[in-house]
Write a structure and sequence with these properties.
The chain has four domains: 10-103, no CATH class; 133-263, Jelly Rolls, CATH 2.60.120; 302-318 and 397-467, no CATH class; 321-393. Helices cover 10% and strands 40% of the residues. The chain has helices at residues 119-127, 270-277, 356-362, 379-392, 473-482; strands at residues 10-14, 22-23, 29-38, 41-51, 66-71, 74-81, 85-87, 90-97, 147-152, 159-165, 168-180, 194-198, 201-205, 216-227, 232-238, 247-252, 283-290, 293-300, 307-311, 318-319, 325-333, 336-337, 343-344, 347-354, 366-370, 396-397, 402-404, 409-410, 427-432, 446-455, 460-465, 486-490.
Length: 491
């Protein structure tokens, strides 16, 4: 006999065109229901068992139907039904959530990379059927949209592109270079002739090597920008006058997204494109399932706790090896060809940065990073990269799952939340009942949720902490190398 649970999560099934809407609880008893969310992403997977005769297959179970989970009047989860499996207990069902839809669509674009990315590729995929809504990457999360611009043989102080950014501290990435040039027109005056300005203040100077007869776009290292109340204007301008025939180009990606790695049109998925935007580690993305659709946004990693998570059992910490010294290989001088036709080969050096207090406490552990692809740089600049890595590294953190029953997850004011309506996009303050956090862990312990899974039958929510670059020295080294100034397009 079919029944409809009044105090649990309800499962709705319908065709992709929105027709033939059916509540699965009317076809049979739904049990073993579990659903979850991940960060980055959104709705992840849902599984359940439909208790009806395995020799009878209701239309609710057709592969490819849209599945929605509802609690009360709220639409909390959406996904696509996979082929269910019959069993003596009924039909075992699995659905892939809306946060994973991007893996089914490629990031195809026609503009010169990275102009209008990621919005161009994302919006094109939505037109082809991706069930997301894009209010505009950056603009929907209180940051800023992207901007780009070109100018032929510009004079000094010419604005190539600009965006209005809100108050706060931001990690800004930017791209500068040339889209064309006339033979023999490039000159020394074009080298490094781009500046990143906040209002009238020069925040950073581009590392750009002007070339003739080609396209050369250089990804610049991220710059930390602090904007006062009321916001400000961020712009890329020429510093001095350009040489005749040089076509200048500059771009500020939306919300500080990382777009420095050029990927051929349709060669990556939408999910990969969104992950690419977060390469530097300061951003994440999420598809929020609401009553009116699945809305994608890109935003800085949240840090302010909005949930209390009570653990009544011991939670083990994860301890990573403590790097204390970074050796950096860098380029002292590049290849040179003199007027007489003789050449000098590039010269490289190795320097190091050390975290002496950690070395004294934990013993020495040394790692290496190659910075030579960034071109000529000062020894102090190379050492600064290593010092930055050591200061960002997080030695001890919580990475194991924590399960909470009713009342185990609360607002910061102590009000219990509905575990079935939670997502992974919360920052938790961990309440350890009856034991301490121990050394090497700052208190109070807070972390961003990386995954959240709800068991409807057990009425429990399981939180997995978000793991990020700072807890892995190898990831930090890779990220540091990736975001060094370098050219990504040359023809």
């Amino acid at each position: 006999m079919s029944l409809l649970r009044q105090n649990g999560t309800q499962v709705l099934s319908y065709k992709p065109d929105g027709t033939d809407r059916r509540w699965m609880g009317q076809a049979g008893h739904v049990n073993q229901l579990k659903n979850g969310f991940v960060t980055p992403g959104g709705a992840n997977t849902a599984t359940w068992n439909l208790m009806t005769e395995p020799d009878v297959r209701p239309p609710d179970l057709d592969e490819g139907r849209i599945i929605e989970l509802h609690r009360g009047a709220g639409r909390i989860w959406e996904g696509i039904l996979s082929e269910p499996a019959p069993s003596p207990q009924g039909w075992q069902c699995t659905a892939t959530g809306a946060g994973q839809y991007g893996a089914n669509y490629v990031a195809a674009y026609t503009d010169m990379w990275p102009t209008n990315e990621p919005d161009e590729a994302l919006n094109a995929a939505i037109t082809r059927g991706l069930r997301w809504n894009n209010p505009g990457i950056g603009t929907s999360s209180g940051m800023w949209g992207g901007a780009s611009g070109t100018a032929g043989s510009p004079g000094g102080g010419v604005t190539l592109c600009s965006v209005a950014i809100p108050a706060g501290t931001w990690e800004v990435t930017w791209i500068a270079g040339f889209t064309s040039s006339t033979a023999g027109s490039a000159a020394a005056a074009d080298n490094n002739n781009f500046g990143l300005y906040l209002g009238s203040t020069l925040e950073a100077t581009a590392v750009v090597d002007a070339v003739d007869n080609g396209v050369e776009l250089y990804v610049q290292s991220p710059v930390t920008i602090t904007v006062g109340g009321g916001g400000g204007t961020l712009a890329v301008k020429t510093i001095g006058a350009a040489s005749s025939g040089m076509q200048y180009y500059a771009m500020i990606p939306p919300g500080g997204a990382w777009l420095g790695q050029e990927v051929d049109s349709a060669a990556q998925t939408i999910t990969s494109l969104m992950n690419l935007c977060c390469t530097y580690g300061g951003l994440t993305w999420f598809v929020n399932t609401t009553q009116t659709g699945n809305f994608v946004s890109l935003f800085p990693l949240p840090v302010a706790p909005d949930r209390l998570l009570v653990s009544t059992t011991p939670v083990a910490r994860t301890i990573a090896g403590q790097p204390t010294t970074v050796f950096e290989r860098y380029e002292i001088s590049d290849d040179q060809v003199t007027a007489a036709g003789t050449s000098d080969v590039a010269v490289y050096g190795t320097t190091s940065s050390i975290d002496q207090p950690s070395a004294n406490r934990y013993g020495a552990t040394e790692v290496f990073i190659d910075l030579s692809q960034a071109g000529v740089m000062a020894q102090a600049a190379a050492q600064a990269v290593g010092t930055n890595l050591l200061s960002r590294f997080l030695r001890a953190n919580y990475s194991n799952t924590i399960t909470a029953g009713p009342g185990g997850i609360m607002t910061m004011g102590g009000q219990p939340v509905d575990l079935g309506s939670e997502t992974s996009l919360h920052v938790y303050q961990l309440v350890l009942a009856g034991y301490g956090a121990g050394g090497s862990v700052a208190t109070p312990v807070t972390f961003l949720g990386g995954q959240y899974d709800f068991d409807d039958a057990a009425e429990t929510g399981t939180v997995t902490p978000f793991q990020y670059l700072a807890s892995s020295i190898n990831d930090l080294l890779e990220a540091a190398s990736t975001v060094l100034p370098t050219a990504f397009q040359d023809s």
